[in-house]
Amino acid sequence: MPYFTQATFGFLKDLTENNKREWFHENKHRYEEHVRDPAIRFITDFGAQLKTFSNHFRADPRTVGGSMFRIHRDTRFSNDKTPYKTFIGIQFRHELGKDAHAPGFYLHIDRSGCFAGAGMWHPDSKSLKKIREAIVEDPKAWKRAVGSKGFRNAYLLEGDRLKRPPRGFDPDHALVEDLKRKDFIGVAKVPNKMITDRELPVELASVLRAGTPLVEFLCAAVGVPF
Q1: Looking at domain 6-222, does it have CATH number 2.40.400.10?
Q2: What pTM was estimated for this model as a whole?
Q3: Which whole number is the average pLDDT over 36-63?
């Protein structure tokens, strides 16, 4: 039995077109049946796969505070006041991480395109400095992490970066473009048919495993075990 189905994508489409609290409450049963419940079942089952490449990341099936991102948007500082996210976000973060900015693995399910992620998104300033210092101290290790055939075949490094070299780092450093990064996240596009496949845990594990060199480098940089 597959975890996610075309009904999952159908709900996300309808939510995009009717992103209002009244509509959501009327269709909450669809959210629970086609989004929340299958996501929790998938997270539970994926835990065994996650342990095949690391024991320090968690597949947490709790409905609040677990691996699945809450569907409610934080609109406090946004001009977009629509109340709900129109995608499914699932993060398998490091056991020592307290939020989405910790080292981790990610699955994004969206009508406009699904992807897997590996790395750190918006690391705090202290962690960001440590990562940059690690790149400077061992550039060969960084190149191995993001230059291996397996990683390059699956992932592209994406995210925000500074316009100028970060303060305190050599502007002429050979890896200055990487030192400018504010996100250290590899993104691998995955087809919708993989999302609706009953073997999703196995297939996703194969994709995320290819991202482990980057995550392992980042864990070492910020001082947590991989």
Answers
A1: no
A2: 0.94
A3: 96
